[in-house]
Amino acid sequence: MQGSTIKFISSALVVVAVSLTATDLKISRQHPRMLSADTLSQPAHFGFGRPATAAEIAILDIDIRPDGKGLPRGEGNVGDGKAIFQQKCAACHGVTGTEGPNDRLVVGDTTKGGARRIKAIGNYWPYATTVFDYIRRAMPFNQPGSLTDEEVYSLTAYLLNANGLLAENARLNAKTLPQIKMPARDRFVPDDRKDGPEIR
Amino acid sequence: MLAGAAAASIVLVQTASGKAFQAALTAAELGPEDPTKVPGVPPGTLGTRSPFEKPVKTPSDTSSRTPLQDLHGMITPSDLHYERHHGGVPAIDPVQYELVIHGMVEKPMIFTLADLKRFPSVSRIAFLECSGNYRGSNDGKIRPQEICGLTSQSEWTGVALSTLFREVGVSPKATWFLAEGGDAAVMTRSVPVHKGWDDAIIAYAQNGEAIRPEQGYPVRLFLPGWEGNANVKWLRRIELADAPFMTREETSKYTEAVGGGKIRQFSFTMDARSIITYPSYPAKVEKGWIEIRGIAWSGRGKVTRVEVSTDAGKTWQNAALQQPVLDKAITAFRYLWNWDGAPTEIMSRTVDETGYVQPFLKQLLAARGGNMGYHFNPVTAWYLQGDGQVLFKGT
Predict the structure, then answer these.
(1) Closest-CA residue in chain B for A52?
(2) A138 with A93, same domain?
(3) Binary contact (A187, B263; C-beta < 8 A)
(4) Taking the model in full, what pTM does it have?
C-alpha cells in the first residue's frame, strides 16, 4: 500500500515536471529570457501606484531632445557665457576650455600630439542641444542644478562660439539652438555588431 | 598578517574568560591561538569578514574596481561590487522615493518603493560591466582588478519592466525610453523599448538584501548583458518616446571610434570575455600542479566554452566550466596544469552561444581602425617567469 502510494506520487511528480517543462518552453518563446509561467495569470493592471499629474511630471521632465523639444524660454549670449565660464567652470575645464584638468570642451589647437583623442564639443558632440541639457542637469560639478536657464543658454553660447560654431554676437534660444549643425553629427553610426561570430 | 592576528586577539581579550593572562601578551608573543581552548565570540547581529581577509576595491575619482584576483566562484560580494558614478553616491530616503513613468503611455504613473515591491518579482544572477573596462601595462605589473575590475556579478531582484510597461500602457509606437537617475549628475540614457519588454528589471535588491547605495539604492535599472552605464542607478524617471534623446553619456562618452572616421553609438551589448584570475600578477607560483582559474562572461547569452593555452597560444585545451552556466552571467572555469617551471605564457579565451570567439588585442585594433576605446574585451595573457613571478602580457 505504502509502496504503491510512493509510486503514484513519484509518477505524478514526473507528469507535473513534464507539463511544467512544456509550459516553460512555450512561454520562453514569447519571453526568451524569463521563465514566466506565472505571468500568464497576471491581470491586465494591478492598480498599484497612482496617476502622475501634469504638474508632477513637469517638475522632473527636464530633458532636451535633439529637435529642441523641452528647451525653456529665455536666451543667452556669448559675452555673458564667457564671464560665467571664468567664474564657475574654468577651475575644472581651463580658462579657454582646453586646459583641463577635467573634460576638454573646446577643440582649440589640435596640431600638438594626441589630436585623435580630443573629444571636445566642436569635434565630437553630435547635437548642440546636448550641451544645454547636460550643463543644466549636472553642472557646475560642485553646485549641480544651480544655474538659471539664461545662464545655461549663455554658457552654451560661449562654448559653441569658442568651438567656432556660433557668431560672437548671436543670441541663443529655443529656436536658434536646435538649428546649429554640429561637425561630428554625420560621424555617428548605430551599433553595427550583429551578435554573431564577427569581431567588430 | 600581523595586523590581522592582532585584531583577532583583541576579540578574544574582550570576550574570553582568561582576560588578564591574554592581555599580558603582545600580538607578536601570542603566536597562533588555539581556538579550542577559549570560548568563541557569541552570535551577532551582522556577520563579519575574517580579520585575516582584507579584499578591497581600488577607487579613483570616478570608479572603484573589484578585486577579481581575490574572489572565488561567480558571485561578487555586494561590498566589493565595482562602482562607477558621475556625480557621487546620493543619499535617498526610501520613504520619499518615487519612480515616474510618463511620455508615450496611456496612464502616466508614480510608483513608490512599496508599490514596486507589491508587483510580481523576478530575480536573476547576471554580470554588470562598465564598457570602459580595459587597462594594459608595459611593465606587466597589473592585476585583474586593474585590467578589468569594472565587472561584477550579483543576484538582482525586482519587478520586470515589462510588468510596469503593461501597467502604464506603453504605446506601441514608443521605440525608446529615457532612464534618469536621481543623483547629482541626474544621469540619463536612452534605451530601446524592446529591451524593456524583453528582460529589463527595475531592481530593488542585490544578493538578497536591498541594493547598496553604490549600486543604486533604492532602485536601479538592470539591463542583463548591456553596458553598465545604461543600467541607470537611483532611477527616478522613465520617459517613453519615439526617438533616442541623445544625452551626454550616449554621445560624447560611451561611444567608440571604429575606423574611417566613424563613431559607433548605442553599442549596448557586452561582447564575450574571460580572464585568468589565478595565477595572475602579483602571484608568484611554484612548478608542479597549478589549477588555473578564471571567469568568463558574455552579454549575448551563455558561455559555451573556455579554452586555455599554456604555450602562448600555440595550442588550446577546454577548461572545465563550473555549474551553473547562466545566460549573461559570469561563469567560473578551471584547468588543471602541471607546470614544468620553464618560462611560458598562459591565457584564456571564451566562446559564447552565438559562436563569438573572444579576440586578441591586435584583432580588436584591426577591426576598429587602430582605435582603442569602449568595448575592449581582448584575450589577457600572463607571463610566468622562471622564478614563478606572474606578469601581465598584452595580446
Answers:
(1) B109
(2) yes
(3) yes
(4) 0.88
